[in-house]
Amino acid sequence: MRLLLITALLVSATAGFAQKGVNPVKFGETINENDLRTHLFILAGKEMEGRETATEGQRKAAAYIETFFRENGLKPGNKGSYQQSYPVYKDSLISSTSMVNNTEFLINQDFQPNLQAAKTASSYFSEVVFVGHGIVDSAYDDYGTMDVRGKAVLILDGAPSNYKTTRRGFQAPNGMFGKIRAANQKGAAAILIVGAGFPRQAMPAVGNMYVNLFTPQQNANSYSVSPKFAESIIGSNFASIVQQGKSGKVEPKVYKADLLLELNKKVIRMESTNVLGYIEGSDKSDEWLIITAHYDHLGKRGDVIYYGADDDGSGTVGIMEIAQAFAASKTAGKGPRRNVMVMAVSGEEKGLWGSAYYANNPTIPMDKLTADLNIDMIGRVDTERTLPDTLNYIYVVGDDKLSTDLKPLSEAANKKYTRMSLDYKFNDPNDSEQIYYRSDHFSFAAKGVPVIFYYDGMLKADYHKPTDTPDKINYTLLKKRAQLVFYTAWEMANRDNLLKRDLELPPMRR
User: Which structural domains are found in the chain, ordered by start?
Assistant: First the structure.
């Protein structure tokens, strides 16, 4: 009996290790244009309503992907479930009041709360600190030596003409978010930013979605206020201060004023999900590879549907077909040595919510995760690309970061199986679009996991527009790109060792 058991174990181990020598081409060829097209016309069809996070359309898409995983024999990736849920919030404004020196100002007429950056509260201040444009960076500080801890601060919109920065978007010190961030870091208790366009349209009944309801520290409520509101605090010389601030820094100053700010809102709790299933490995089943794509998009604006066929319906159907190819290899007794997790994440368009939630609440040990291969837009051709290989390229991003094993493996797999042109344009540290930081792979990279991101380029004519539809997809190219990811994943899932983690995460360019 003991001899038979030892013999059986040896046979089992030999079968497991033998997977490394299996030719994966017949499994890769199961990734075909007809299946990709069929899935994409469903996921990017009217029924899915643009798949916005935490909506009925997103839930329909999640159910479709789960059913596909289940029918192809993938095991549930979250403790017996194919979905991992995370909370999403919206705010409904009940009321908001403001007064300066007993003069009441009307919402939308002279002020609007930043609903997401506010909590139900009543605040009473006897003075307000004016801090110019409220800009703070390494070489510039509008606050000077002024201590604003526990104070209400008043901030001018925009920036003086002599202020320069290369940072954009959420990171820009002269943008609204940068000013709010700086005021909170300074310890302000309320933030008033002077804005144009008052009176304004009434605020929506329900605010934007967000996920960070629970935070270690509660930030200040912030408001946009009219010049008339600001003048009631500063006085009649407010216009001259604004004029002075157009060309240079304005000194901070404390103004005596009785300021009342009241806000009452209701927090609406919702839910979104990641969809995840895996193919069990053979002799290395304590180790993992993960393949990701985001299945959410922008949803609807009134009756207009944002279909999101390329962004990222193409990546979603790509990982579905890749999952099926790995499942076929498993059924044939030639499956991967490592577990291969395939995960469709939501919330990417909102700020990498789903992948960030997974990275902070993983269902597998992150130190046993060899890599993440992420696909976000692989079905179209970059209209700004002028090279002659337009119909045989893919942008490969991040293979030169975190692990010296990535690029050699990636290039060898491509040379052996698909022979595509691998374009490294977005590996440039000075990439103005900072693409490396803008899709779900970065949630894993931030945890030290080696990543490769596959991408077709920014198609400006249809990007984030209702015209991103499945009839515009190049299905031949989509198939070949998905096969490249499959063959690269195959090599990663079957090599002897986990990928080295021997390079530092590069900092985002400021």
Answer: 18-88+271-494 (3.40.630.10), 91-268 (3.50.30.30)
